Amino acid sequence: EGGRKSDAEKNFFALASGRGPEDAAVRQLLYLWGPRPETHQLDWLEQRANAATGTERAAWLTYLNDRGAGDRVIRIVESNPSPPGIDGPERKIYLNAVVAGRDSKRLGHVIREELAVETQPQTVRGLAKLAVQENLPDVATEAYRALFELRPGDVEAAGWLGRVAYAKGQREEALKLIGLTLGKDKDNYESHYIYGELLYADERRSEAL
Questions:
Q1: How far apart are the first and last CA of the chain?
Q2: What's the rounded Cα separation, in Å, for the pair 87 and 129?
Q3: Which has the higher per-residue pLDDT, 182 or 22?
Q4: Which of 70, 79, 128, 146 is the most buried (most CB within 10 A)?
Q5: In sequence order, what DSSP letters do the residues of 79-114 get, joined into one string?
Q6: Top-confidence residue, 91 or 43
Q7: If you average pLDDT over every residue of the chain, what do you get?
Q8: What is the per-residue pLDDT across 133-171, written as a single tens digit (0 to 9) for each?
Q9: Which residues 6+ apart lie within 8 Å of 106 measured at CB?
Q10: Residues 6+ away with beta carbon under 8 Å from 104
C-alpha cells in the first residue's frame, strides 16, 4: 500500500508541477500529503507561491497557511508585500498568519497599516475586535477611534472610547460617549455602571458646592 501511495504521489507531483493551484492534480497531491506536509513538500508550495501572482499566489499562500506554515506565508508576503488593504485576499491570509504566529508587535503593526488606508466601517470594526481579542488595547482604541470617525455615534466605538476616557479620568468625555450607548447597548453592564458612577459623583460634587 505504501508503495502504491508513493507511486501515486510521484505521478500527481509530475502532473501538478505545471498546473495552477485549483487544478485537480494539485488538489489530489495535497490530499496525499495530508494536513501536515513534510519540509520538502512545504518547500515546493513556497516555491509555487513565490513564482505566482494575484489570486494564484493567494491560493498557494492559503495552502501553506492551512497546513501550519504561517511562518512561510509571513516571509513570502513581507519579502514582496502587497499594498495594505484588508479586502485584498493576500492581506487577509497574511493577517491570519500573523495572528496564528502570536507575535503581538507584528500584529499591532499590521493592524495599524490597515487602519491607515481602510475606509469600510465593518472592516475597521473587525480590526478593532481583533485587537481586543489579541489583547492589544492601545491598537483597539486607535481602531475604534477610526470607526467613530467613519460612523459618528457608533454604539460599539462610543462604548469602548467612553470606557477609555473614564480610565484616563476624562469625566466629561466619558459621560458624553457612554451616554450615546444608553438604551442601545443593554448588555454592556460595564458602561452602564461607569455612567451611573459618573452621575453619582457629579451629584455629590454639586451637593458639596
A1: 89
A2: 16
A3: 22
A4: 128
A5: HSPPPS-TTSHHHHHHHHHHHHTT-HHHHHHHHHHH
A6: 43
A7: 86
A8: 999 999 999 999 999 999 999 999 998 998 899 889 888
A9: 74, 98
A10: 134, 135, 136
Tell me the HSE value of 25 on the side-chain side, using a 13 A CA sphere.
13
Which long-range contacts does 104-109 make (Cβ < 8 Å, 24+ apart)? Answer: 104/134, 104/135, 104/136, 106/74, 107/134, 107/136, 108/136, 108/138, 108/139
Q: How far apart are CA 84 and CA 202, in angstroms?
A: 45
pLDDT of amino acid 185: 60
| C-alpha radius of gyration, the chain, whole number | 24
pLDDT, average across residues 91-98: 90
166 against 7, higher pLDDT: 166
> Which amino acid type is present at position 150?
L
- What b/e sequence results for 68-80 when a residue is b if at least 16 CB atoms lie within 10 Å of its CB, and e otherwise? ebbebbbebbeee
Nine-digit cell string for 19: 498546473
Contact at 8 Å (CB) between 175 and 166? no
